[in-house]
Amino acid sequence: MAIETEFAELDGTGLAARERRDPVAKPMLGADTVYLAMTYLVLIVATLIALVPFLYVISTSLKDTIALFHYPPQWIPHQPTITNYRGLIRDHPFLRWTFNSLIVASSVTVIKVFIDSLAGYAFAKMRFPGKETVFLIVLMTLMIPFAATLIPLFIIVRNLHMLNTYWGLILPPLASPLGIFMMRQFIETLPTDLENAARLDGCSEFGIYRRVILPLIRPGLVVLGIFTFMTQWTSYLWPLVIGTHDNMYTLTVGVQSLRALFTVNWGILSVGAVLSMLPLVIVFIFLQRYFIAGSIAGALKE
Questions:
Q1: Is the pTM of the predicted complex or chain greater than 0.85?
Q2: What is the pLDDT of residues 145-198, one digit of tens each?
Q3: Is the peptide bond preceding residue 239 cis, with omega within 30 degrees of 0?
Q4: Of the candidates 233, 217, 213, the residue with the CA atom closest to the CA atom of residue 284
Q5: Burial status of residue 150 (CB atoms within 10 A of its CB: 0-12, 13-18, 19 or more)
Q6: Contact call for residues 109 and 228 (beta carbons, < 8 A)
């Protein structure tokens, strides 16, 4: 019993000593809790700022003309209706605009991912005279605003008789150098031993690109694909300039054309905004895992 009492006293003494040595343990736990709470508060506020306009547009699309001007506004319509959806599809070539946007965005995405990944592989792994100079020139084109090249680009497309054509909508966006820069930075993170081993096995440069590089940069390709698709789906200025016929409008130009000169049917306009955003949401939901993985992997180097 004496031994047990002595060990108990020693345990109590040791515990008291540890508390005296580490007096800031409890305050640190409180600081972490406050930091975590503030982080969640900021995230909740940011989420509300992003979602509230989207939810209000959905609510507006389900209201009739009279309910649109109720005050205070009705967030949840008392009598929701799909009349605006029917009117948009029946009275306007909305399906044609959607088809045009889908063709343009998909074509630009597929071609650009292929070309930019090839160029990125060349700049990252291959050796040729003037490589750094050429890459520097490519980066310098990023500093040229699109407004400075809009008129010359329009004149070139007009002289090639590509106004109101899919080629006129697809070819100019392919010249953006941002994808080349992204692919080059991503491919540079891959170890050089992989392509060296493939060369020893007699593989060609394109074979190395297709069999070795492409499977490893799949997350980066998804990031570039999502970024390109979103950019082309929401593009407005170039489709507005190149398309003068109603049947060649993309969604952004078509929805904007729903605004009349003196009156605006906000219900129809809200329906167009909601339906034009749905493809982007669906694409991101299905590919968000690859998008996040590619975003993280592209920032790491071995």
A1: no
A2: 888 889 999 999 999 999 999 999 999 999 888 889 989 888 888 888 888 888
A3: no
A4: 233
A5: middle
A6: yes
